Amino acid sequence: MSDNESAQVQEGAPLETANDRFKKSFDTWFWGSVLVATVVHFVMFMFWPSMTAEDVSFDSEELVAIELPPEIEIPPPPQAISRPATPVIAAADISEDITIAPTTFEDNPVAELPPPPDEEAVDISAAPSFTPHTVRPDLINQPEVERALEREYPPILRDNGIGGRVTVHFFIDEDGIVQNTLVAETSGHSSLDDAALRVANVFRFTPALNLDKVVPVWISLPITFQTR
User: Fold this and answer.
1) What is the DSSP letter of 9?
2) What pTM did the predictor assign?
């Protein structure tokens, strides 16, 4: 206990606490803080850089008047096409006695009729063309054709596993014999196309028929080369 507190106890006065002393010093701390804050703000305003407003004005472009193009005069629509006239049945007096004379063989004997025109023979073997037929030719030598396929297959392509399909036009005469061959669709390999034409000459067919008449025809068949 301090001397001041001992004296207060001896005199019978109430004891002063630290809280009481703090309350008494409040005015000193308050006004001292106000003074310090005033000085700090004064210094800040003295040495703080001055602030200026930025120029945000703008210039507007001058409007230019645009000359309008001259007014276009739209021509009038074309005149409508007149509808065709509606046919009108004319009023005509036709005699009921008018008749067409009957045609009889007595007035026109067969012996005096002109002969029918001669049928010109047309050679169709040069290029593929359509010939009417009711019965299509049938292949009759399948084994011989298979041997020809193996024989004519180009060895270089066969050994490398390269095959192909060639569509061939056949011209078959009245005896079922192939008289002409043409490549209709290539395989992409000229050697295969040539081999297909050689094989095509081995084909034998039954003759084509148009009703009961034997006729020459063009037909198309695929010839396929493939490794097994």
Assistant:
1) H
2) 0.47
